[in-house]
Amino acid sequence: MARVDVIMPQMGESIAEGTLSKWLKRVGDEVKRDEAIFEISTDKVDAEIPSSVAGVLAEILVQEGQTVAVQTVVARIETEKGAAVAAASAAPAPAAASEKPVPAAAESSARGAPPTAQAATAAPSVPHPSSAAAIPGAGGNGFEDRIRTKSSPLVRKIAAEHGIELASMHGTGIAGRVTKKDIESYLASGAAPAAVARPSMHAPTGVEQHGPAPEPWPGDRVEPMSKIRALTSDHMVAARRTAAHVTSFFEIDLTRVGRIRQRMRAQFESDTGQKLTYLPFIISTVVESLKQFPVLNAAVSGSSIIYRKPFNIGIAVALDWGLIVPVIKNASDLSLSGLTRNLNDLADRARTKRLKPEDVQGATFTITNPGVFGSLMGTPIIPLGTSAILGLGAIEKRPKVLTGADGEDVIAVRTCAYFSLSFDHRIVDGADADKFLASIKKGLETFPDASR
């Protein structure tokens, strides 16, 4: 009998740590090869991790909720074939030096991770920014430099407000990554430069934006945020404070699309094995409209605008444990059947925790569909690194006043929905946003009928 180490896997080149969110097996449980034994959360995805060997779970070294570095041994499985497998599983991780540097624009939109559970309680060694030159590699492109500056959006916000250069700090996180606790300790030490006064969008100048933290009352239940909830919280706050949000609304008549879908449905499902919904029609029309209004497929980088070449459409998926946005890459190259396959595949893998980090990266435009829950309209938050997001309201039949054959007004039952577009007013003018919505409206209300 021998024991095989089970390690925290590296779910992407830029990911240095993961949180063990749930054990699916207990000590003493039999484990089959390729059977999921625990779940992890990283700053990109949640995933179930399978066992590379068959045996018995003999030892658990990392408890639920702990955040550890990749390649950390989290458990051991007892197996007769363990010796041979252990040698294979102990192979080193891909060389950190082979990583490609992250562009500044992409870095600003990265979703950061919350502070690691392994952070020391003592104040970290965090020199004043002016002493950055004394830190080996500060400001460089090495692995530790990139990990150290890849802090959570909240940490980056605090640093920006106080004029602190994160690259010059060495925190208690993985590879010196600066955590919230690190930067708060640094500020409390009095070593930080004076904060630059900035006007608030949510409160008068000089007024504290955040009041005292709520305290639990007798009988309340208190539980820590899950990894995905904490990440969503950081991302939404950073996104809301970054973009100048404005939202426009259009009512769109989907009667024609509904009839085309109904005629195509049986043959489509027979040929592809996929259910045909309204969403592929909408995505196809959105992509054509993005080609006409490229600023809606763009991103702000300082004082420059990056016009994205690919049309990568993020689709928000609501899960029992949180929200995730898998991405359909190069959607302009896909037919209705291709869009449907991609949609169903990504949604299925999101719900079964089988998404890879690259599946949730690179969106240039996002669609969210709260209408499936009955919502008529909303004002969604624009994801970081993009300039707009489209919200789809509930699709329902409504009485509408139409013009009859002789010019008279008639009332007819039509299938309609409200579409909302939240856009970044820093680079998108209201006129362009409304023209974009008008283009979507026209495209859907005159969608070509390939079923005839």
For the report, how would you describe the main beta sheet? 7 strands, mixed
Which percent bin holds the helix content? 25-40%
* Cα distance spanning the termini: 67 Å
CATH architectural grouping of the largest domain = 2-Layer Sandwich
Strand content: 15-25%
What is the CATH T-level topology of the largest domain? Chloramphenicol Acetyltransferase
Structural class: alpha+beta
Mean pLDDT: 79
Task: Write the CATH homologous superfamily of the largest domain.
Answer: Chloramphenicol acetyltransferase-like domain
CATH class of the largest domain: Alpha Beta
Q: What's the number of helices?
A: 10
Nearest-angstrom radius of gyration? Answer: 25 Å
Shape: globular
Beta-strand segment tally: 19
Pattern of helices and strands: EEEEEEEEHHHHHHEHHEEEEEEHEEEEH
* Total individual domains: 3
| Model regions low in confidence, pLDDT < 50 over at least 5 residues | 82-148, 194-209
Q: What do you see in this structure?
A:
By secondary structure, the chain is α+β, with helices and mostly antiparallel strands. The chain has three domains: 96 residues, OB fold (Dihydrolipoamide Acetyltransferase, E2P) (Beta Barrel); 115 residues, no CATH class; 201 residues, Chloramphenicol Acetyltransferase (2-Layer Sandwich), CATH 3.30.559. The protein is built from ten helices and 19 strands. Strands 9, 12, 15, 16, 17, 18 and 19 form a seven-stranded mixed β-sheet that branches. Strands 1-8-6-3 form a four-stranded antiparallel β-sheet. A hairpin with a 2-residue loop joins strand 13 and strand 14. Helix 8 crosses helix 9 and helix 8 crosses helix 10. It starts with a strand and ends in a 7-residue tail after the last helix. About 18% of the residues have low confidence.
